[in-house]
Design goal:
The structure is a homotrimer. By secondary structure, the first copy, chain A, is α/β, with parallel strands linked by helices. Chain A has eleven helices and nine strands. In chain A, a hairpin with a 4-residue loop joins strand 7 (173-176) and strand 8 (181-184). At the A-B interface, helix 5 and helix 10 of A face helix 2, strand 2 and helix 10 of B. Chains A, B, C: Its cofactor is Mg(2+).
C-alpha cells in the first residue's frame, strides 16, 4: 500500500538520522518517553529550564511539549521553546494531558495555541474535544462520547483551524491534516492500563516527524508503531503474566520493530 | 473471616468505581505509583502546581501527599490540596518520607498535621516514631527499635491523638484507628530492596480509601494487597533472577490480583 | 590480580556498610539510580531543596551531582551540598550530563568546578572534552573523536588539573587519578540504547566511593560492575527479546552481583 511505503521510509530514516527529540514533559512518564525514543533508534533529550530550552531546541529535530505535570516555571519554557522551534523550522508536537480538568491546563493550552504553530496535536477524545471547545469558544465539549461518533469531523475541523495534524487516540486512532482523514486500527486495550502510553505515542510522533517526512505521515507512523508494538506485547503474554510483563514486552517490541511489522500488521485507511 | 469480606468488597468497588487518586508526590517513584493504581483498577493523576491542586482534588476520590522530594513549591501545594480535600470530604493519606532526617521534612509534616485532617498516616517505624515525638513535643523518638516492641502502643496512641488511621510498615504491618489494632503478616523482605514500595503502599491505601469504605479497612486492604503481591512476585522468581524481575512480577501480581488472593493468603489479625 | 582484590573488598564493604548515597539528580533516570544503588546493597536518598541538602549530605557517605535536568533552583543546591560535602569529607561525584550543549550547563559545571572539590568526574568523551576545554579556556574541544585516540591523555591531564579521578566512558572506559591510567574492557553496546546507564554508573561510583576505599578504586569498581552487569544481561537475551528485557536483566545482574563476577569477567588494565 502506498501509505505503508511512506511509513517504512520514516522508519528507515530514523535509523539513518537518529533524530534528536527535545522534550519538555512531565516527571511521571519521562523515563518511558526517553526509552521509547532510544528503542526505536532516536535520541531523546529532556531539558526544561527557561535559560536553556532555546539552545536545546536549536540542536533538535523535533520538540515535544507535554503538560502532564505543568507548573508556572515549565509553562514559560513551553512558550519559549515553541516559538524558537517555529522560528527555525523544528516541528512541534503538543500533548495536552488533562486539558479540561483545570483552568491552569486550559490556560497553557490556549497560550501555546496562540503563540506556537503546531505540527501535531495529539490527545484522547476528551482532551481534543476540550480544545475544540476552547478554540471555538462557543461549542460545548461534552456532547460526543464515542470517538467514532463525531471524532472524524472534530479532527478534520480542528486540523483546518489550527493548520496542523490532529490525532485523536482511542480504540481507533483518528488522524487528520485538515484535508484527509485516516483511521488506524492497530493497538490493544491493555495499552490503556499502563501509564504513559499516550505520552510515549507523542514522543514517537515527535521522533517520526523529526525525520523531516511531514507531520501527517509522522503522526500516522508514530501511532501505528505504538499500536503494533502493543499488539505484539499482548500476544507474548502468558496467562499468569500481567501489566509488568506487558510493559517490558512493549519496549521489546519497539526495539525489535521492523519493516515487516508495518507490512504485515499495519491497518491504516483513508476515510472518505 | 469477617474482615476479609470487607477487603473483598473494597477490591470489587475499585473495579466498579475506578476511583481517581490525586497524588502530590516525589519524582523518584511517581511512575510506579501511577502504574500500581492503574494495575489494580484505579485512575491516578499527578498534579502539584499551587494553581491547580484545588481543582484537581475536587474531582478526585482520594489525595495522597508524599514528601519524598519536597520543595518549597510543593510544600504549599500539600497544604492547599489538603485543606480543600478536608473541605469536600476527600480522604487524605500522608506518607512522611524521611521525616526526622531534615528540619524541612519535620516542618512540612508539622504544618500538614496542624492544618489538614488525615484519614491515614503511613510510614516506617522510624518515620512514625519521629512524628510521635514531634506531635508530643516531649517524648524522645529513638527508644524503640523493633516495631513489635512498642509499635502497637505508638500506632494506637498516635491514631487517637491525630484521629486518623496510623499504619506502621515493616516485617509485620501494624494498623490502628485508635480503637482497635491489626497486624498484617503478609509481604516479603525483597520489597525493601526496590525503591518505592512504601510510596506504592500509600498509593494503594489511597485507592482503597477512595472507594468510600473507610480509612481503617482502606489501610488494611492497601497493605494486604501490597504484601500478597510481594509474596506472589517472590514465589515466581527463578534462582538466577533478581530485583529487576521481582519488580516486573510485583506489577503482574497487582494487575492479576483477585478475591482468591485475599481468601487464600490474607493474614490479618486484630490484636487485643 | 591485585586490583581485583581491592574491588572485591569494596563490594564486600558495600554489603557490610550499606552506604547512604545522596543524589541531586535529574527526573528522567532517578528511579533507575535509586534502584541500582539498592540492588547492589546501598541506600539511596534523593533530595534537592536548598533548605535540606546540607542536612541530608551530612548523614550520607557520598554525594552524586547529576545535571541532567538542571534548573536555577537545583543549581544552587548543587553548590550548597557540594561545599558541605567537602567540609565534612564526603566524596563528591559529578556527572556533567550534556555539558557543551547549552550555556546553562557550561555555567553550572564551571561553578561546581570552582567551588567544589570533586572526588570523581564521570562523563562520555564529548562531555569530558568540553570540560577539558572549559577548564583550559584555550584548547578547542572538537579535535578528538575516538576515546582511544587522545582519551588517555585528556583523562590524565584533567585528573591532574582537577586533582580528582576522571572517568571517560565509552566502548572502553578510561580512568585516571592523575598518576595512573586504567582501561576497563567490560560492558556491551546495548547499554547505550537504554536511558540512564551513564547516570546509573555515576550512582554506582558514588556507592563504591561511599565505602571509604578511595576514589580511584571506587570509580574502577563502579564502572566494572556496570559493565559486567551489562554483559550478563545481554547474554540472557533470547532472540526475540529487546531493550525492555535487557533493562530487567541488567537490574537482575546488579542484584545478583558476586565476587566471582569480578574474578571471572573483570577486565581492567593499567596503561603505561
Amino acid at each position: 500500500m502506498e501509505i505503508n511505503n511512506q511509513l517504512i521510509t520514516i522508519l528507515q530514516e530514523i535509523k539513518r538520522q537518529k533524530p534528536l527529540v527535545h522534550h519538555i514533559t512531565n516527571y511521571v512518564t519521562v523515563n518511558d518517553c526517553a526509552n521509547i525514543v532510544l528503542a526505536l533508534g532516536g535520541s531523546p533529550v529532556m531539558a526544561d529550564d527557561q535559560d536553556e530550552v532555546e539552545e536545546m531546541v536549536s540542536i533538535a529535530s523535533a520538540l515535544v511539549l507535554n503538560i502532564g505535570t505543568l507548573n508556572k516555571r515549565s509553562m514559560e519554557s513551553f512558550l519559549i521553546a515553541g516559538k524558537k522551534a517555529n522560528e527555525i523550522g523544528v516541528p512541534v508536537i503538543l500533548d495536552p494531558v488533562g486539558v479540561g480538568a483545570t483552568n491552569l491546563r486550559n490556560e497553557i493550552v490556549r497560550r501555546i495555541l496562540k503563540n506556537v504553530k503546531l505540527s501535531v496535536l495529539r490527545g484522547n477524545m476528551s482532551e481534543i474535544k476540550n480544545i475544540y471547545g476552547i478554540a471555538a469558544s462557543t461549542k460545548g465539549v461534552d456532547s460526543i462520547d464515542n470517538p467514532l461518533d463525531g471524532g472524524k469531523e472534530i479532527a478534520l475541523e480542528l486540523a483546518k483551524r489550527l493548520q496542523c495534524t490532529v490525532v485523536i487516540t482511542g480504540a481507533v486512532d483518528i488522524i487528520s491534516d485538515g484535508g484527509t482523514v485516516y483511521y488506524i486500527n492497530n493497538g490493544h486495550e491493555m495499552l490503556t492500563n499502563i501509564t504513559g502510553t499516550g505520552c510515549m505515542s507523542s514522543s514517537l510522533i515527535g521522533l517520526c516527524c523529526g525525520t523531516g517526512k511531514g507531520s501527517l505521515h509522522g503522526a500516522i507512523a508514530g501511532m501505528m508503531i505504538m499500536g503494533i508494538a502493543g499488539e505484539k506485547a499482548q500476544s507474548r503474554l502468558k496467562e499468569y503474566e500481567g501489566l509488568g510483563s506487558f510493559k517490558v514486552y512493549l519496549m521489546d517490541a519497539i526495539s525489535k520493530f521492523s519493516i515487516e511489522d508495518i507490512q504485515e500488521r499495519g491497518k491504516v485507511n483513508e476515510i472518505k
